[in-house]
Design goal:
Number of strands: 11
Radius of gyration: 21 Å
Number of helices: 20
Strand content: 5-15%
């Protein structure tokens, strides 16, 4: 029985409800009157239900889809402006006891070299990332209670936050590790993490069990209910995501939105972020082995519909995707991108990109300086801001800030100031020139005159050597 407030995964991600939703969407995909009603509701910027959004996903009417894309672009601008937050992943260890068939870290893979960073190596990686200009990391590790216990993760977080090199500092550490206990989530919260990220991979339970044949991740319910335990443990910001290509995308889309609805219903706040990964080639993984792959066009449609269905959530696209795909999705809803990523364990210290421990192939292999310049050339403000997390504006407090549009008086000026830090400390001459012109153009668009004045004063102080201003 479907129950959005149930704490059991089988109830809030209910297979019968998803199948009824898909049947309903098929029956109404050309119902212009209903589609118009759904689009009008979406224009209120309060989101859509999984059933309403599924109707739009099934719709193939060109004029209606054009309205959806236009609305997605406008909602993105309304809530997130032209800012794009930049981060990098840091893989700590690829030891893993699971048997996930789509991931090269699976236990039976004897081709991949197993590696785990020492705290000294973590420190060197962090310095290398700081020397690029990064301020925000997402740490990743395989599930292995012997090699990667929670104590190891906590030690790594402490090391990362402790490193201050030149003007560099990692100001926010997001964590993408396996589902764990309420007590361990409390320990992560106490360690000062930003967002806890856990991809569902697939919401289709039968497929999930086949894709995860062995290891603790085989427990579908324990995995799917992890976000509830994380929030019970005090973590305000959680990040959802499915690995598109493992199962039929319409099923995954409905399940993803149902999960967001569940978090909102039970905890009063939905996901802080939703990630958009697709199955990619890796060491012993052939993406063609999965027959549910999706085209770039469907991928863009999913992005636009997630944006209008969950308008306040941040949306993430990684370097799994090419520059062209990332460019298209930025317009439709993406608010965070990774830059200069290495999906091997460590590797940022090395001049040549290592491939022997990569989790997946990286399509966008540009430097951070190139990514920053690319964003600015398109009129976006590359943001290295971490202020909301550090000022306690997380969970429902961030959502209220976003819904009231006061985000423009916080995140917009913070983006400009952190970009200026990057330009002063790390940028090459051309991005520095482009960035300074962009800051000069964007500063007057800050709604509050008082905030504008403070920003102008802080920009002068940044040029004199001061750092880390924030609202």
């Amino acid at each position: 029985m479907y129950d959005v407030k149930s704490m059991c995964a089988d109830d809030f991600i209910n297979d019968d409800e998803i199948r009824d939703t898909l049947a309903y969407a098929d029956a109404h995909k050309a119902d212009v009157e209903l589609i118009d009603q759904i689009i009008e509701k979406a224009k209120l910027r309060k989101g859509l239900t999984h059933r309403e959004a599924s109707v739009l996903l099934a719709c193939e009417l060109p004029d209606k889809l054009a309205e959806v894309y236009e609305l997605a672009e406008q909602i993105k601008l309304d809530f997130y402006g032209n800012r794009i937050v930049i981060f990098a992943p840091l893989y700590l260890s690829n030891y893993c006891v699971n048997g996930c068939v789509y991931c090269p870290y699976h236990m039976k893979n004897k081709h991949i070299a197993r590696k785990k960073l020492t705290q000294e190596e973590v420190a060197r990686e962090v310095i290398a990332l700081q020397d690029m200009g990064h301020k925000r990391l997402a740490i990743e590790a395989g599930e292995d209670p012997v090699n990667n216990p929670i104590e190891y993760i906590l030690d790594c977080i402490n090391t990362i936050y402790s490193i201050k090199h030149k003007n560099g500092a990692i100001r926010r550490v997001n964590v993408n590790i396996a589902a764990t206990t309420v007590e361990n989530y409390r320990r992560l919260k106490d360690a000062g993490i930003g967002t806890y990220i856990l991809f569902q991979e697939t919401y289709h339970k039968e497929s999930y069990l086949k894709l995860h044949p062995t290891g603790p991740k085989h427990d579908y319910n324990y995995h799917t209910e992890a976000m509830d335990r994380a929030m019970e443990g005090g973590i305000d910001d959680v990040g959802l995501g499915v690995l598109f290509g493992l199962e039929l995308y319409r099923y995954e889309f409905a399940g993803l939105l149902m999960h967001a609805e569940h978090l909102e219903a039970v905890h009063g706040v939905g996901p802080h972020t939703i990630s958009m990964p697709r199955v990619k080639h890796a060491d012993d993984i052939d993406p063609n082995a999965f027959d549910n792959s999706i085209s770039d066009e469907i991928f863009a449609k999913l992005c636009a519909l997630i944006r209008i269905a969950v308008p306040y959530t941040g949306m993430i696209i990684s370097t799994r995707e090419s520059q062209d795909v990332r460019e298209k999705l930025l317009r439709l809803g993406i608010s965070q991108v990774s830059g200069a990523s290495r999906t091997s364990v460590g590797g940022y210290c090395e001049e040549e990109r290592p491939h022997d421990t990569e989790q997946f192939d990286v399509s966008d292999q540009r430097t951070l300086d190139e990514v920053v310049c690319w964003l600015m050339d398109m009129g976006y403000i590359p943001s290295f801001c971490t202020a909301c997390y550090r000022e306690g504006r997380t969970g429902d407090r961030f959502m209220q800030l976003c819904k009231s549009k006061q985000i423009q008086n916080c995140c917009h000026p913070n983006a400009l100031m952190t970009l200026d830090e990057y330009l002063e400390d790390y940028a090459s001459p051309h991005p520095r020139e482009v960035g300074r012109a962009l800051i000069q153009k964007e500063s007057p668009t800050i709604p509050s005159q008082k905030v504008q004045q403070i920003v102008r004063e802080n920009l002068d102080k940044i040029k004199q050597g001061s750092r880390d201003f924030r609202f």
